[in-house]
Amino acid sequence: MTNRTRTDALLLAGFCAFLFLYGLGQFGLIGADEPRYAQVAREMLQRHDWITPVLYGQPWLEKPPLYYWQAMIAYSIFGVSDWAARLPSVLNATLLVLAIYIFLRRFRPGFDLAGFDLARFDLDGALIAASSVGMIGYARAASMDMALTAAFTLAMLGWWVWRESGKKIYLAAFYGFVALGMLAKGPVAPLLAVLVIVVYATAVREFRLILKTLWLPGIVLFCAIALPWYFAVQMRNPDFFHAFIIQHNLDRFSTNLYHHPEPFWYYLPVTALALLPWTVFSIAAFFQGLRLWWGRRNSGDTGETALENQFPIFACCWLITPVVFFSISQSKLPGYILPAIPAGALLLAEYLRRRLMEGEPKPAAKGLVVLHSLLAAVPIVPALLIAYLVTQHRLPGGRPMLGALAIAFVLCAGIALTLVRPSGLRMLRFVTLIPVVLTVGATLRLGSAAIDQTLSARPVAQEIAAIETHPLPLAVYHVRRELEYGLTFYRNQLTLNYDWGTVPQQEHFLVAPENSQVEVARLVAGRRVSYLGHYPAQHLDYFWVAAAGAGSAR
User: Fold this and answer.
1) Which of 219-251 are b and which e, b meaning 16 or more Cβ less than 10 Å from the residue's Cβ?
2) Which of 40, 283, 422, 531 is in the most buried spot, having the most CB atoms within 10 Å?
3) For the residues of 8-49, what is the DSSP string, one character each?
4) Rounded CA gap, 416 and 74, in Å?
C-alpha cells in the first residue's frame, strides 16, 4: 500500500465515520418507516425466520428482505437498538463511497499536471458523494433506500467498466449487484438499470449495447441471487405476489393509493437539494456532459472511438433517468431518486478532471462561484439554530439569527475568494467540505436533543416505562402514526389504537393529544381513568385505563 493509498484510506474512513456514523444514536428513530422497518427485523430475528418479513406477528410483505437481513445481523452482534437499526445504511453508504473511489482511481486514471502532484479527482469524487445531503441523510436512516442505492451504484460502475474493457467479470458484477438491488427494494432495481442502459445506448446510437448486455450467464447469476427468496416467500405466503408486486409496486407507481401525491416537477428541487452543497457545479458538469453528447452527435461519430469521452454522457443518463421515471409516478417520496445522486458526484469529478486537463488552471466562472459559495454556506444557518427551528417551526430573529448569518457570510466569502483564484478548482473539495463538517457537527451537537424530544417516540416510551409499576398494554388515540410505530419498536409490543374502531377491554395505558380528558372519558365510559402526566414537547397526555367492568370512571 502506497503512502497516497494510506492517506486516502484514512481520509475516507474519517469522513465516512463522521458523516455517517458519529452520533448515530443521539436521537431516536423518526418518521413512520424507521421504527417500522427496525421492528420487522427484530420480529424476524426473534422468530429465526429469514424468509417472511413480520410486523405485529403477521406477514408484512411490502418490502424485500436485504435491509432486514442486514439489521438482523447487526442486532445479533450489537443488540437491538435504534443505533443498530441504522448501521446497515452506514455500511452501505461507506461501501458506495469506497466503490466510487476505486472506480475513479483505477478506471478513470489521473494525470500529471506540470508543477503539481497527481490530480486527486478520484478522492474528490468519493468525498463529494459522501458529503452530499442526500447521502448523509439516508446513510443515517433505517431504510431500504441506501441498500438499493449502493447496489445500483456498484452495478452501474460494473457495467461501465465492462463497456470499456470488455471483460465479462465486470458484466457478471453488474448482474450480481442488480440482483442485490432487487433484494433491496424489488423490481425497480433491474428496471432502472435497463432504462439507464437503453437511454445511454440511444444517446450514443449504439443499440447493439442492449443486446450485448443480455448475457446468458449473467442472467443466470441474477436469477440465482435474486429469485430464491421470492420463490420461498411466495410458497409460504400465497398472497405475496398480489401484495408486493401489484399493490406495492404497480399500484404505488400508477395510482395515489398510498397518499404521496406531488407535482410532476417535484424531483427537480428534491434532486437539487439532495446534491447540496455540490448542486451548482453538478449542474455545470451535467451541461458539460450534454455538450459532449451534442458535439459527438453533430460530428457524426457513431462508432466506438473516443470511448473515454462517453463516460460523462453515461453519467448524465444515469442522473436523469431515475428523476424522469419517478416524476411519472403518481406516488412520490424523496428517497426514490437517491440512486441518481452518485451520478452527480461522478459527473462533478469528471468535470474537475477535464477542467484540470485543459492545461494551465483557470478560475471558475464567477457566477458559479457565487452561487456555489452561497449554497455551501447557507445550511450552517439552520444547523446553528436547529433546536429553535425544530421546536418552534421557524427561525428566530435577533442576535441568534444575526450570529448565524455572520458565520455563514464568513464561510461564503472564504469559499468565494478561494475559488476565484486561478487554481481555485483544485481547492473546491477542501473549501466545500469545511461548511459540510461544521453543519453536520452543529446539527448533531445542538439539535439532537430537540429532535429526539419532538420527533421521536423514544422519550415518550421512556416516560411511560418510568411511571408503570408492571408491564401493561399500550394504546394510542388520535396521534401521529410515526408515534404509534415508534412506541411499538421501543416497547417491543403491539401498540393498540382506538382509531381502529375498538377500545381494548383489558387494563392499559393510553397516549392521547393534550387536553383530551373529556373525550377519553367518553370513549371508555363506565371505566376508571387516571390522568398520569403530560409530555409538552409533543403535546401528549398519558392515562391509565382500568379493565372493562372494573369500576366506574373518575
Assistant:
1) eebbeebbeebbeebeeebeebeeebbebbbee
2) 40
3) HHHHHHHHHIIIIITTTTSS--BTTHHHHHHHHHHHHHHHT-
4) 43
Q: Is 497 helix (H, G, I), strand (E, B) or coil?
A: strand
Phi and psi at 427, nearest 5°, equal -100, 5
Q: Which amino acid is at 153?
A: T
C-alpha distance across the termini of the chain, in Å: 74
Count CA atoms closer than 13 A to 436's CA, side-chain side.
Answer: 27
Strand partners, 530: 544
* pLDDT at 259 (0 to 100): 57
Query: Do the beta carbons of residue 89 and residue 146 sit within 8 Å?
Result: yes
Spatial contact of 151 and 177, defined as CB atoms under 8 Å apart: yes
Please give the grid coordinates belonging to residue 340.
441518481
Q: What is the pLDDT of residue 1?
A: 62
Q: Which three cell numbers stand for residue 282?
A: 453538478
Helices 279-299 and 311-328, axial angle in degrees (round to 10): 110
The amino acid present at 58, given as its one-letter code, is Q
Cell readout for 272 is 437539487
Q: Which amino acid is at 14?
A: G
DSSP string, 332-359: --GGGGGGGHHHHHHHHHHHHHHHHHTS
Dihedral angle, C-alpha 535, 539, 540, 541, nearest 10 °: 80
| Whole-number Å distance between alpha carbons of 64 and 382 | 36
Match 409499576 to its residue by C-alpha cell.
469
Half-sphere exposure of 412 toward its Cβ, with a 13 Å CA cutoff? Answer: 18
Phi then psi dihedrals of residue 30, to 5 deg = -125, 165
CB 131 within 8 A of CB 335: no
Tell me the HSE value of 380 on the side-chain side, using a 13 A CA sphere: 22
% of the chain beyond a pLDDT of 70: 92
Give the number of other Cβ atoms within 10 Å of residue 15's Cβ: 19
Q: pLDDT tens digits, residue range 460-517?
A: 999 999 888 888 999 999 999 999 999 999 999 999 999 888 888 999 999 999 989 8
* pLDDT number for residue 113: 41
What is the DSSP secondary-structure string of 64-81?
-SHHHHHHHHHHHHH-SS
pTM above 0.85, yes or no: yes
Whether the bond into 277 is cis, omega within 30 of 0: yes
Burial of 66 (0-12, 13-18, 19+ CB in 10 A): buried
pLDDT tens string 159-169: 999 999 889 99
Instruction: Please state, in angstroms and rounded to a whole number, the distance separating the CA atoms of residues 446 and 450.
Output: 8
Of 253 and 431, more confident: 431
CA 301, 304, 310 angle in degrees (round to 5)?
80
CA 142 from centre of chain: 9
Mean pLDDT of the region 134-140: 96
